[in-house]
Amino acid sequence: MSCELTSNANHTKSSKWGLFFVSVTGGLATVLSVICIPFVSPALRKVCLPYVPATTKQVDNIINALSGRKGTLIDLGSGDGRIVLAAAKTGFRAYGVELNPFLVAYSKMTALTQGLSSNASFFRGDLWKCNLANYSNVVIFGVSQMMTELESKFRFELETNTFIIACRFPLPNSKPLATIGHGIDTVWVYKMPLENIDS
Ligand SMILES: C[S@@+](CC[C@H](N)C(=O)[O-])C[C@H]1O[C@@H](n2cnc3c(N)ncnc32)[C@H](O)[C@@H]1O
Fold first, then answer.
1. Is the dihedral of CA 65, 193, 84, 59 positive or negative?
2. Is 176 in contact with 190 (CB distance < 8 Å)?
3. How many Å lie between the centroid of ligand 1 and the Cα of residue 99?
4. Considering only CA atoms, which residue is closest to atom 4 of ligand 1?
């Protein structure tokens, strides 16, 4: 009889542990999925633009390309905000548009901790739906498949004298003012109105 009671008590104890274990692993799996979805979902879009942060050299090249410039700047697909923050440090009123809400939250937090919140703003949005008319400098670290469509968007929306800094992939039909850096850190500098490559 006492043996039976002990075995029942042990059984109840182990099923409680089992339930606890299933709840914890299930909860962790759900949290991980929720975090991963925004990182994976760009791959399901018409143009797959994954999260690949700019290298330190690339950011330096962008800042060099912008020397002598001022005003507003937007980074299209701002990731963890490193380009926007670097530009804000050099005096630009800098903005980042980014699809991934975690990266937007992280960027805002970094801006706050670095005391740059008044010069660096981040918002969640689709770069294709963002009207670029009010920005005097535009930065894009994109992928080659998007550059032709983006070039048309620039031609349509950007004001004369706006600077465009394209990282890693150039605008396919436009002549750059300058090319800075080498290999994966290369940036191409353009000025509106864009000049055709064959003119
Ligand atoms: C190559 S990463 C560049 C990140 C950042 N600009 C940098 O250089 O460190 C591209 C970023 O664009 C974001 N992205 C992808 N599609 C987007 C879209 N349609 N609108 C806004 N952001 C997008 C991705 O989530 C990713 O963070």
1. negative
2. yes
3. 7
4. 79
CB 56 within 8 A of CB 83: no
What are 6's two structure tokens?
A: 């002990």
Question: Given the DSSP bridges, would you call strands 120-124 and 137-141 parallel, antiparallel or unpaired?
Answer: unpaired
Give the pLDDT of residue 133. 97
**Across the chain, where does the E strand assignment appear?**
72-76, 93-98, 120-124, 137-141, 163-167, 178-180, 187-191
CATH of domain 56-191: 3.40.50.150
Name all residues whose Cβ lies below 6 A of ligand 1: 42, 49, 51-54, 75, 77-79, 82-83, 97-100, 103, 126-128, 141
pLDDT digits (tens, 9 = 90+) for 79-127: 999 999 999 999 999 999 999 999 999 999 999 999 999 999 999 999 9
Residue 11 vs residue 172, higher pLDDT: 172
Q: Which of 26, 146, 145 is nearest to 76 (CA)?
A: 146
Strands 137-141 and 72-76, by their bridges, are parallel
pTM of the model: 0.85
The answer, yes or no, to whether residue 13 has pLDDT greater than 60, is yes
Q: What is the whole-number distance in angstroms between the Cα of residue 79 and the centre of ligand 1?
A: 5
**Can you give the residue ranges of every domain in the chain?**
2-44, 56-191
